[in-house]
Amino acid sequence: MCIFFCSFTLQIFTFKHLQFLSFLLCLQFFVGGNWKCNGTKDSISKLVSDLNSAKLEADVDVVVAPPFVYLDQVKNSLTDRIEISAQNSWIGKGGAFTGEISVEQLKDTGCNWVILGHSERRHVIGEDDQFIGKKAAYALSQGLKVIACIGELLQEREAGKTFDVCFQQMKAFADAVPSWDDVVVAYEPVWAIGTGKVATPQQAQEVHIAVRDWLKKNVSAEVASKTRIIYGGSVNGSNCSELAKQEDIDGFLVGGASLKVYFYCWA
Ligand SMILES: O=C[C@H](O)COP(=O)(O)O
């Protein structure tokens, strides 16, 4: 038995190396598991144990984002080969902000990434572009790397506004962050998240290349070529290979499937 990350990334790297021959720079593939508000001490202990016994492909960055309350448990039991991300962070230094978690506290628990701008934060909690931009700027200023999420709602896609929405969200990040060195962009169409309705490889590639082009025009050609743009939204063991063949898909941010044993075990 080999784990999903290993075998599927092996396939991915075959594809990607072939496809990227013409590129001067080959971006390291990135696989993020966003565990969202799921798990118990016991189920997380089992997941960590599965990950620890897995042989991960060397050329792939693997990051998991447990719920806050289990960060310490995961940090203390997970192999150092896998990095740990938070699912959110406060906009500045800690203090009298009930219920919030500061970047400093996240770093203290051993986190080196944070997911910001996730659609569940935008559309369920109500975080806006500027608020998310401030969070990104503060996290980066304190040495935390950022998975910056963007993506359109179904009605926005149907109204032909996908690019407008994604570019507006990109602009908010670009206006706030001083550097893109420690940023991975995650394109997550909201209609594909947790719905089982994955974007087709063509739909995803179309947005990824547009976002890269946006970075080229609005930030720099260097940032456009160096920034990883990953896809999220109902990714699983059956659809990941086709998505990964797309030239501008540099990895995945996976929710539901990252909690299931079969996701890690791909025979
Ligand atoms: O952060 C992950 C995304 O929201 C995707 O979630 P999903 O794989 O459950 O659709």
Side by side, the strands of the main sheet go 1-2-3-4-5-6-7-8
* Share of residues in strands: 5-15%
Work out the helix count: 12
Briefly note the structural class of the backbone. alpha/beta
Give the class-level CATH name. Alpha Beta
Number of strands: 8
* Largest sheet, strands/sense/barrel: 8 strands, parallel, barrel
Distance N to C terminus: 5 Å
Overall shape: it is globular
On the 0 to 100 scale, the average pLDDT is: 89
CATH superfamily: Aldolase class I
Order of helices and strands: HEHEHEHEHHEHHEHHEHEH
The CATH architecture is Alpha-Beta Barrel
CATH topology: TIM Barrel
What is the rounded Rg?
A: 17 Å
User: What ranges have pLDDT less than 50 throughout 5 or more consecutive residues?
Assistant: 1-24
Bound molecules: glyceraldehyde-3-phosphate
Count the domains.
Answer: 1
Helix content: 40-55%
InterPro entries: Aldolase_TIM (IPR013785), TIM_sf (IPR035990), TrioseP_Isoase_bac/euk (IPR022896), Triosephosphate_isomerase (IPR000652), Triosephosphate_isomerase_AS (IPR020861)
GO cellular component, one term: cytosol
Protein name: Triosephosphate isomerase
GO molecular function, one term: triose-phosphate isomerase activity
